[in-house]
Amino acid sequence: MQFVELSIPGLLEIQPKRLGDERGYFSEIFRLAEFRNRAGDCDLVQENESLSARVGTVRGLHFQTVPFAQGKLVRCTRGAIFDVAVDLRHDSESYGAWAAVTLSPETGNQLWIPPGFAHGFCTLVPDTIVNYKVTAVYSQPDDKGVAWNDPAIGIEWPAQADPETLSAKDRQQPLLADLPPYFSMKG
Ligand SMILES: Cc1cn([C@H]2C[C@H](O)[C@@H](COP(=O)(O)OP(=O)(O)O[C@H]3O[C@H](C)C(=O)[C@H](O)[C@H]3O)O2)c(=O)[nH]c1=O
């Protein structure tokens, strides 16, 4: 299993090994000890799955606030996504910066997003399924967001991104400039 740090420290793209044979392949997609060794001590306490029927579906940018801040280990099990994270740690050198990877079942790669980041994705094909483990349970009162198209963040979404697919919640997320300092590098 390979771990590659993205342009923002803390974000890790994970590439499990695939052992191929005449039947297909076998792949270990998660080992807690190896994951913790790279991502730090954390417990993955909930697993989520979402299906997005339309190509260009945009979900995000979401995060939960302390004490329910979530780390997310994201993979795409059908279709493909442009998966993006935004640094919301107010004392980080990369505050407001974004980084993205394409996740798909063909590559089998994953993205680790530590607490302190907003997460979102855009589907690149119809009927895309995203599966992700999180380090804190869902807490609706602590479920917050930031505008997907905030020019101060400047995410270069794929051409497929379709604003018509946004949920009512995502159509009215605040701008980065209006976010309280929810997160710090000090945890
Ligand atoms: C996140 C979550 C949601 N829900 C309920 C709340 C709503 O009734 C329904 C849909 O929730 P929402 O519209 O927030 O789902 P997404 O737009 O896919 O949001 C997710 O996608 C972005 C990309 C993320 O990173 C977050 O994990 C998560 O916010 O599921 C739950 O019951 N448990 C949960 O953990």
UniProtKB/TrEMBL annotation:
Name of the molecule in the record: dTDP-4-dehydrorhamnose 3,5-epimerase
Function: Catalyzes the epimerization of the C3' and C5'positions of dTDP-6-deoxy-D-xylo-4-hexulose, forming dTDP-6-deoxy-L-lyxo-4-hexulose.
Keyword Repeat: no
UniProtKB keywords: Isomerase
Catalyzed chemical reaction(s): dTDP-4-dehydro-6-deoxy-alpha-D-glucose = dTDP-4-dehydro-beta-L-rhamnose
Entry's family note: Belongs to the dTDP-4-dehydrorhamnose 3,5-epimerase family.
The EC number(s) this enzyme carries: 5.1.3.13
The organism of origin for this protein: Novosphingobium album (ex Hu et al. 2023)
Primary gene name: rfbC
Stored Gene3D superfamilies: Jelly Rolls
Subunit structure, interactors included: Homodimer.
Functional pathway: Carbohydrate biosynthesis; dTDP-L-rhamnose biosynthesis
A Pfam family hit: dTDP_sugar_isom
RNA-binding as UniProt keyword: no
Top-level division of the source organism's lineage: Bacteria
Gene Ontology molecular function: dTDP-4-dehydrorhamnose 3,5-epimerase activity
